Amino acid sequence: MESWREKAEIKQKSILAKIPEQWLLPQALCVMPTTPDSPYLNVTTDAFMTEAGLSPRELAITSKTSIPEILASYESQEVSAEEVVTAFCHRAAISHQTTECLAEIRFADAIAEAKAQDEYLRVHKKLHGPLHGIPVSLKDQFRVKGLESAISYIGWLGRFETAETESLITKQIKELGGIIIAKAKSPSNLHRPVMNPHNRLLSPGGSSGGEGALLASRGSVLGMGTDMGGSIRVPSAYNHLFGLKPSSGRFSYRDLASSLGGKPVVPPVPGPMSASLDNVIHLTQSVIGGIDAWRRDPGLVPLPWRAPLLDEVRAEASTPGKGLCFAAFPGTGDDGIMRLHPPVARGVATAVRAARQAGHRVIDWTPPSHMDAAMIYGGLCFPTTYDIDDALKSGGEPMLGAVENMLKPTEKYRPKDMAEYYELFKKMKKYQEDYADYWESTRALTGTGRPVDGIIAPVAATAAVKHNSAYAFSYAIVYNVLDYSILTVPVTFADKNIDVADPQDAPHSPIDEMSWVPYDADIYHGAPVGVQIVGRRFEEEKVLALGEALSSALKAMTYEKYDCRGWRL
Amino acid sequence: MESWREKAEIKQKSILAKIPEQWLLPQALCVMPTTPDSPYLNVTTDAFMTEAGLSPRELAITSKTSIPEILASYESQEVSAEEVVTAFCHRAAISHQTTECLAEIRFADAIAEAKAQDEYLRVHKKLHGPLHGIPVSLKDQFRVKGLESAISYIGWLGRFETAETESLITKQIKELGGIIIAKAKSPSNLHRPVMNPHNRLLSPGGSSGGEGALLASRGSVLGMGTDMGGSIRVPSAYNHLFGLKPSSGRFSYRDLASSLGGKPVVPPVPGPMSASLDNVIHLTQSVIGGIDAWRRDPGLVPLPWRAPLLDEVRAEASTPGKGLCFAAFPGTGDDGIMRLHPPVARGVATAVRAARQAGHRVIDWTPPSHMDAAMIYGGLCFPTTYDIDDALKSGGEPMLGAVENMLKPTEKYRPKDMAEYYELFKKMKKYQEDYADYWESTRALTGTGRPVDGIIAPVAATAAVKHNSAYAFSYAIVYNVLDYSILTVPVTFADKNIDVADPQDAPHSPIDEMSWVPYDADIYHGAPVGVQIVGRRFEEEKVLALGEALSSALKAMTYEKYDCRGWRL
Question: How far is C-alpha B278 from the chain's CA centre?
């Protein structure tokens, strides 16, 4: 019997072995950098991709990541699905070798499927579906026929999925014509740490971090992650991506690999991530609009895709004299629990300023205490670790230090018995009602006749953190407790010339102290900064449209640089 | 300090004290009968109501219980809301004195509100809303300003509700123009047992049993109950009523009085009950179609009222050569766990036969074992009794014998620790998926191109049972575990000349043995028998239309009498 370290090493090698030899890179391009002066910190650029062997044609193909545009190029026969999928597989191979992002590779199958799609188009003179020939990647939790779904657990290796065990989302994506090229990692002993391709000194976040790194390198057009405490939103923000965390019941969680089972914790949800907001909208519309998905998963709510919700926001945003009303935390832009790193504070201030410049209002957001939500979350979600323990034990491996560090501070919130556990559920229900009432109460303040349309909030207190640091997650989990629908929108990048540390900065609260990561302008330079636009339960269509409005506002913004307090420089 | 018995007695008297003196009945009409030869067994008849003091005009008014018809009579000024509400209050007073059905009375306020509605109509020349001047009753769990919501607990007496603590459903009904005349009892030490007005030797079922008795006496036009294990469906069947148990998230449970809190058990749901299916449809459409109720209760799903689902079934049911496809348990019509009493077996067979005569198909239903659902339910719902214990202790009262009898057999299913508790949630999710897959698999068998439209199932193994017997609830709870949408449809009445006990009958299973109630043709004579039409999650509109189809089929049925095995006599 191999030790867990040996098993992990074998798995790592088996992933690399699925990359065609001509796509393998020299060691110099792959090795993890150690200082801000190391070469190849940012591995997303055209120059780097060219050095890594991507041809000009492949570079051109993989630079076009809008699904509607790719579909149009198939219909006009400008390019074949085979060529597109091959180019993205090549780029994904580079991405994996430079960031360690992939858990499973199926390039050969993907290219064969692309050929079949080309043949379908030739014969039927129409596309197979709204994802015809689109390269898609999935977080390792999504089960795919022929691949493993070890999701970090060494003890779970060697269980190969069949058509029967495939996740419903996998089936839906295949039925829509999508081509699954790879599955992406979560942090684990099974794999080496994933690097952030924008700055490889940093982590891409978790747990959909591999997916974030792959998409940031443009190694895939569209990915699916899952989020139970920020796991879509944090890697989206850390990698300059759009990411949708839907409410529970709109995307199927059926037959995903998980050590949680059906436990009554805060619900984990799947959702799309992409560099293109159009792609996130396209995927959501295609999957949610799919006929009768709710008949195949009793956990789904039969809410169809609601175009009017999107159209109303678009009309409101584009009509002179009208406009939307956002909300944001007042003052320094934090929630009173976690102090924001300078680039994040500037990111939020920039988004607020952009919205105002575009004619929207932004009012102060002073909701029920996020500390209450953090305590409910800690108590409800972490008694479940005995299952994680079981899965770790099955492979004889220890818990990751970063995970242990994240779980440890919450120990005191864990319920001692069923009565305390039930009490937490009561508190959660009350918190949800109080937050809903607060939101509704803003109707009197917005000037639009509606309550606040969406909240502009930090995703985490930090931009992408150094490797092996746990991220501070109060900004994410409150909205898991509320089961709200949220879109992450990329805003800016950390800039050592603007985002200067305040020597007087100190943790805001005991929780802040526990996960406090000091800001270092040199190391964080280039780290992406995003914000989350928060909508209420089941407002997916609305937050997608709010994301369009905010993105347009950011693009149209009169460019001025602001420091972390929102002051003009 | 009074003992709990004294406190209960004081409460009983305070209810009676709210009945105007001229409506009080002689003791002879009120006393609980003891044998099938006792007088006044059935207190629903016109003759009895006349003897109890209802005037011919009041009798005529209270015989018209269709909301659309009542609204039309207001608009045509044929009658005033004051007169209608007064007549129903009088009838409710008779109902309470003969069945002990009410927990709270607000006749005086109701009549004053009716006068205000009349004035509104006179001034504005239009109705105040879709429930304008309609007398409505509520199970005691629904909080109403100015009333208590002790819901059976002596320790909870004396807490009077305010506008702030009112249940959202109460507010919705008031906003729609409805007039709340009374709140109805659940079984408790606080109150004497409620009697079934069709046969006062029998119970009206629980826990919305007071509501069932009131509606069966036509003391109200429409009532709201709640259902977590059959508590709407069982009293609906026992009282010859239509009752809708919706899926969780369509009717608001916000701010209902409950000893459950927000615990992650099988979800309790509110739903309407009435002698008229039109009323159940009218109420559902009005409440679900209400603007933005989901903004006021984050537990609601923003699914609007979906008329097309109703219309499709209506079209399918009325088109010659088409038709619906129902399913029913094969053989003797039971689920293999609980043997059916003869009147119930005949009721199901009658419904099946009526559906077939109307041109619909009925195929065999052999789903995943209901025993599995019973074990999941027992384990998930009954660890919660410590909260019931607390509430009982606060009043110094013991647990009701019938409730103790119902809970005791489930003790062995209770989880010993959190790990076992979590395991039950996993099993529940798996059971829901297996049942959904089974349902979907019937697509190949129905001949309609659709899977089975609805299941025709018993509601309980017995018709209304003798006082202080626990009902056998396996037929109800399986669909709480599945969170399905269900309509109860009245079918027939127990008939001692047809429904003859089989001397060889014996319990089917250990569970059956625990709650086995021997059939007695003489005692059960006249007890109502209903069936439940089961739809999948969130198919409320569909099951309402299926109920219309089955009711029409029953009315149109060529009248032949069948015994309990479906054989022609």
Answer: 16
Give residue B560's pLDDT.
Answer: 57
Q: Per the residue annotation, which of A80, A152, A186, A207 is the catalytic one? A: A207
pLDDT at B517: 76
B165 lies within 8 A of chain A by CB: no
Which of B418, B437, B450, B538 to substitute to test the interface with A, most A CBs within 10 Å?
A: B418
CB contact under 8 A, A262 and B418: no
What is the distance in angstroms between the Cα of A453 and the nearest Cα belonging to chain B?
Answer: 13
Hey, is the C-beta of A261 within 8 angstroms of any chain B C-beta?
yes
| Side chain identity at residue B273, one-letter code | M
Domains of chain B, by residue range, sit at 7-222+250-283, 307-556
Domains A4-232 and A307-556 equal at CATH topology level: yes
Say whether B418 and A419 touch across the interface (CB within 8 A). Answer: no
Separation CA A52–CA A172 (nearest Å): 34
Using an 8 Å CB-CB cutoff, list chain B residues near A433. 254, 297-298
Report the CATH fold assignment for A4-232: Amidase signature (AS) enzymes (3.90.1300)
> How wide is the angle at C-alpha A101 spanned by C-alphas A96 and A104, nearest 5°?
85
- 3-state helix/strand/coil string of B169-234: HHHHHHHCCCEEEEEECCCCCCCCCCCCCCCCCECCCCCCHHHHHHHHCCCCCEEEEEECCCCCHH
What token pair was written down for A141? 């939790």
The Cα of A84 is separated from the nearest Cα of chain B by a number of Å equal to 37
Extract the residue ranges of chain B whose pLDDT is less than 70: 1, 261-264, 291, 382-386, 402, 406, 409-410, 470-473, 515, 558-569
Is A536 in Cβ contact with B425 (below 8 Å)?
A: no
Q: Is A252 on the interface with B (CB under 8 A)?
A: no
CATH superfamily of B307-556: Amidase signature (AS) domain (3.90.1300.10)
What is the rounded CA–CA span in Å between residue B536 and residue A521?
Answer: 56
* Secondary structure letter of residue A360 according to DSSP: -
With CB atoms and an 8 Å threshold, state whether A436 touches B296.
Answer: yes
**Chain pair A-B, CB pairs under 8 angstroms:** 99
Cα separation of A256 and B361, whole Å? 37
- CATH architecture of structural domain B7-222+250-283: Alpha-Beta Complex (3.90)
Residue A245, min C-alpha distance to chain B (Å) = 17
Quick one: which H or E segment has residue B328? Answer: strand B325-328
Question: What confidence score (pLDDT) does residue A275 get?
Answer: 97
ipTM of the modeled complex: 0.93
The tens digit of pLDDT for each residue in A476-511 reads 999 999 999 999 999 999 999 989 887 777 777 777
Q: What is the DSSP letter of B298?
A: T
In tens, the pLDDT along A84-133 reads 999 999 999 999 999 999 999 999 999 999 999 999 999 999 999 999 99
